[in-house]
Amino acid sequence: MSGISAVYPGSFDPVTNGHLDIIERGARTFDTLIVAVGRNSGKNPLFTPDERVTLLRECCAPWPNVRVTSFEGMLVSFARAEGAGVLIKGLRAISDFEYEFQMALANKQLAPDIETMFMMTSAEHLYLSSSIVKEIARLGGDVSPLVPFVVEENLKMKLDPSRQEARPVSMGFDIKE
Ligand code: PNS
Question: What global pTM score does this model have?
Fold first, then answer.
């Protein structure tokens, strides 16, 4: 594929409206945006990597230049293999900065040819995170202003012990591989 490709990596456990804001703006800025779900995150995820990819594909269906996949191992190796020279990171409150700065410097050391670019979150998503969404959902609160409907439905399924085997529901979009 020609043009400038960027990778937007993350855990996306699950994807929130804050992530989708970055994806929408990234899709406008770059020719191709590869949304990459990290498979080897040290966190204890609620959704499996495949479930997170499926949910993201549903939510990214409106953007034809966005591709969703997962990766294992080093982010810069994945970006290089995909022919992407840019890593996109979303920045929210100041608390994100130190961790992201450290990661950006480590990635620069590992791959000087790959640039990390930070996109400031939109004001309404300043304190939105996947962890907060999961906490609210676990406590039975309303997450509808924070995540797409398909994610809300899948959170309910995951957190309801009687529906543990439920798979992510389709919203009827075409899912790109
Ligand atoms: O949404 P998150 O949890 O901040 O995403 C973390 C992710 C997947 C982007 C991060 O864990 C990652 O880059 N993992 C790949 C491992 C890697 O390349 N490490 C070396 C650079 S610090």
Answer: 0.92
Distance 38 CA to ligand 1 centre (A): 7
Long-range contacts of 43-52 (CB under 8 A, 24+ apart): 43/11, 43/13, 45/11, 45/13, 46/13, 46/14, 46/134, 46/158, 47/13, 47/14, 47/154, 47/158, 51/154, 51/167, 51/168, 52/11, 52/12, 52/13, 52/14, 52/15
Tell me the per-residue pLDDT of 48-80, one tens digit each, with 9 for 90 and over: 999 999 999 999 999 999 999 999 999 999 999
Protein residue whose Cα sits closest to atom 12 of ligand 1? 75
State residue 33 phi and psi, 5-degree precision: -120, 120
Q: Residues with catalytic annotation?
A: 19, 43, 92, 130
